[in-house]
Amino acid sequence: MKSNILIIEDNEQNLYLVTFILEKYGYTVIPARNGQAGIDIAKENCPDLILLDIQLPIMNGYDVARELRKILGDAIPIIAITSYAMPGDREKALEAGCSDYITKPINPDTFMTNIEQYLSGPSSSGEKAA
């Protein structure tokens, strides 16, 4: 069974790149363009993993992570994907409820290795989907 991954990202190019990589590996992607939409979609679809931008319209990613943890608990991993890479930014994301933190720009060669540890989806064996 394919894993469903919710991507909460407002930047079209970042959303395209992450979606392209995930779909190449056989995952189903559910996009959300702002934090409130992401929360609503997460409640309706119960994804296997949430990839969360921090700098979002309407609600920032820290507030989104806190709200998702209140609603969904700790069962679903939330990975912050952000350009915030200053000292303390990683800790701030983890304190808000994120399970991990990946800085932008993402490295397509290592991206899947970074997130597959949180998934038991189609390519958890390390093989690419055809």
TrEMBL record:
PANTHER family found in the cross-reference section: HYBRID SIGNAL TRANSDUCTION HISTIDINE KINASE J
Protein's recorded name: Response regulator receiver domain-containing protein
GO BP term (any one): phosphorelay signal transduction system
Source taxonomy: Bacteria, Bacillati, Chloroflexota, Anaerolineae, Anaerolineales
Residue ranges annotated for the Response regulatory domain, each copy included: 4-119
Keyword Oxidoreductase: no
4-aspartylphosphate: residues carrying this PTM: 53
Species this chain originates from: Pelolinea submarina
Keyword vocabulary terms for this entry: Phosphoprotein, Two-component regulatory system
Coiled coil: none
